[in-house]
Amino acid sequence: MIRKLQIGVIGSAGPDKADGADSVARDVGKRIAERGHVLVFGPELQPVSLSTLAAKAAAEDNGTTLAIALGRGRTSFEGMEYVSAWVYTDNSGGGGREVVLANSCDGVIVIGGGVGTLIEIAVSYMNLVPVVLIESTGGWADKLNDAYLDERRKVRMHKCADVEEAIRHIENATRTRALRTLHNK
């Protein structure tokens, strides 16, 4: 069996999203499911986030979703009915879940985004995980450019307006991406 790609959908859980971002999130979820990939997301206690909307759309299209959650098992989250599998990080907000989420992905798609999304982008960058920014969705997706985050030039951010292009970019980047070698430093 060929391993499915794990594509993270990260983004706004608050007011920093642009008009139309909800629709983009649903389209991302549907397209990930149609292509047979696993949608990885971080469920929120409340309100429903853009990544939860994407997971809902993927689940409704018979896709597979993986929730990287705060806290311990049996915690109640918005959109629990759309989750195929859970990972509980035993962390509260502030970085623990975001690190696990970013490190569990072959690529991430950014829709809007606040500080949690920024943490996920930075961890993805440091670990050579491709990052795609969906234009005109607000937050960090609009604030960052097609550029590197720093002089180390680890992963160039890829900005696009089209959901299909975003997924294709991750598929292509994953094919050519070498696995990271760990060093004790």
Number of folding domains? 1
Biggest pleated sheet: 7 strands, parallel
> How large, in whole angstroms, is the Cα Rg?
15 Å
CATH topology: Rossmann fold
Q: Identify the overall geometry.
A: globular
Query: Helix and strand string, N-terminal first?
Result: EHEHEEHEHEHEH
Strand content: 15-25%
Query: Which sequence of strands runs across the widest sheet?
Result: 4-3-2-1-5-6-7
Output mean pLDDT.
90
Highest-level CATH class? Alpha Beta
List the helices and strands and how they pair.
Blueprint: E1 6-11, H1 21-34, E2 38-41, H2 50-60, E3 64-69, E4 85-88, H3 96-103, E5 107-111, H4 115-126, E6 131-134, H5 139-143, E7 158-160, H6 163-176
Parallel strand pairs: 1-2, 1-5, 2-3, 3-4, 5-6, 6-7
Helix pairs in contact: 1-2, 3-4
The gist of it:
The chain has helices spanning 21-34, 50-60, 96-103, 115-126, 139-143, 163-176; strands spanning 6-11, 38-41, 64-69, 85-88, 107-111, 131-134, 158-160.
Can you walk through the features of this model?
The chain is 35% helix and 17% strand. The chain has 185 residues and is of the alpha/beta class. It has a single domain, classed as Rossmann fold. It has a seven-stranded parallel sheet with strand order 4-3-2-1-5-6-7, with helices on both faces. Strand 6, helix 5 and strand 7 form a beta-alpha-beta unit. Helix 1 packs parallel to helix 2 and helix 3 crosses helix 4. The longest helix has 14 residues. The protein is globular, with a radius of gyration of 15 Å. The termini are far apart. The mean pLDDT is 90.
Characteristic terms for this protein:
alpha/beta, seven-stranded parallel beta sheet
